[in-house]
Amino acid sequence: MTGGVDPNRERDREMLTCWWQRLGEAELGLADMKALNQTTVDIASGFAAGVNVTLVGHPFETIKVRLQTQPSPPNHIYTGFIDCVRKTLTWEGPTGLYKGVAAPLLGQLFFRSALFWSNGLFVRWASDNGKKTPSYLMFGVGGSFAWAVGALIECPLQLASSQMQVQIVKAKSNPAYTAEFTGVLNYISRAPSKYGVGALYTGMVPHMCRNVAGGFFHFGSFEYLRREYARRKGVPVTEVGLTVNMLAGSVGGFLYWSLTYPVDVVKSAMQGDSLENKKYNGMTDTFSKLWKEGGAMRFTRGLSACLLRSIPANAVLLTTAFRVKEIGYKWVEK
């Protein structure tokens, strides 16, 4: 049509524009779906890791907290790791090592899911959604970020667990003592209404310090060791094998706890403190009072139990989580 707009050509142009827009929306939808599936895999990896690490690590955690929170000499109940294990088994039987495991297990599912979800989120950002490999520094920062997010869930759980262990220690040292709470869930549901938000987040400052510093070495060393092994062997990191992953996880866990343990002692003291008549007033005051109790050695109480736990627990934790991720991500890519 001369001097005017060809209606057929205009219609074709509109159809082409509409098709292009829908194609872009479809691509965006696929990208969103992939990200959603990766997030689901991250959460599932945390669930699986949470179950395994609780079954392996809870007995060690029970001993560690009891040693950390018992009265100082000469009123102490346990003389060391072996003595604490022996007395726990004598007084409570083998189930004593798994005292209150149901609530921590439930909590671990949420805590570890948050941990590995946030780590996956950070790594995807650092890698530009898999287009490049992050530096080892960024893997460490990703660990700090993940553990910082995890602290928001972990702190109330560990505080409640510490209060339960303190009740047990008090009951053994004073037969007339009556426990205020029947378990972790009972504590979480009742304590805040009576004692305020501090009943759930006392010790949050040292808790966050421990997690951020330890998380850097936890994830950073794990990724460094297995990726360096893969590089030298000339294989993808997904093919380094179970043994390498477990050794890397063991090192990551050992570094996490050996480098941050004094801060953990401060955290445990604050979280095991009386809810009504507090002995400690903040992180600095707690450190000062603990130092007066026993100097530098006061910050090593329970260390052997902690380090013994850190090796198998973190070998299982990181190997389980990253193996589930590797399998899940392959499925997402299909």
Shape: elongated
Strand content: under 5%
What is the alpha-carbon Rg in Å? 25 Å
User: What structural class should be given to the helix and strand makeup?
Assistant: mainly alpha
Largest sheet: none
Helix-strand sequence: HHHHHHHHHH
Name the descriptors.
0% strand; 77% helix; single chain; 10 helices; 334 residues
What does this molecule look like?
The chain is built from 10 helices and no strands. The chain has 334 residues and is an all-alpha fold.
Per-chain topology:
Blueprint: H1 7-69, H2 81-92, H3 102-126, H4 136-173, H5 184-195, H6 198-201, H7 204-233, H8 242-271, H9 283-294, H10 303-333
Q: What's this entry about, in short?
A:
This protein has 334 residues and is mainly alpha-helical. Helices cover 77% and strands 0% of the residues.
